[in-house]
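Annotators were shown the component list below and the corresponding predicted structure, then asked to write short factual statements about the assembly.
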Amino acid sequence: MRVLLFAALRDAAGPSVDVNLPAGATVRDLRAELARVLPAALLARSAIAVNHEYAEDARAVREGDEVAVIPPVSGG
Amino acid sequence: MVRLTRDAIDFAALTNEARHPHCGAVALFLGTVRDLTGEHVTVFLDYDAYAPMAEKKLAEIEATVRARWPVREVLMVHRLGRLAVGDVSVAVVVSCPHRAEAFDALRFAVDALKELVPIWKKENGPDGTGEWVHQSAKPGAT
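Structure shown to annotators:
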């Protein structure tokens, strides 16, 4: 599954990273995989978005979902 | 109406667009690029967004404002790309029959934008270094 990255995470690891998740995986599982390739402190302070919506850790992620890591925002 | 743009924001035109005979109050907020954050000097900013989600979140904020206050227009425009000190990065305009609700609706819209919309700024200093600003709380964690 391709996961989109932005801002400091994009500078650290590129515009996206690919992670392998088993069927039935959740956002919590995704975070554990991402922690292997992304700066852990910033990942911990980031939200996960699934299909353009902020997602709880228990939410399922499926092949075909659009998934992104959303670090603390600073628009305005 | 919500929009992301790489062009300069014509906030005068935007403000005019919100005027209406039923509205005695038009409130405008401009976010502009500041040169000093504490002792940290900024020469220019780069703004980036997760555009499809940012547009969705902006539209949701507009819908919430419309549900809570008697607004006629809610206009939210955020600029992306490279901005110089003094440039307008965001403009939010609301029009209402009376000023109290216009101020309240405007404040809510700006606060929600800064809390929820996936847009980021990178502060670039005079020494050629830049740093993305990730100081707020985890987004959407309400």
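Statements collected:
1. The beta strands of chain B are 2-5, 25-32, 36-37, 40-41, 44-49, 73-79, 81-84, 88-96, 119-124, 130-132.
2. The helical segments of chain B are 11-18, 51-68, 99-116.
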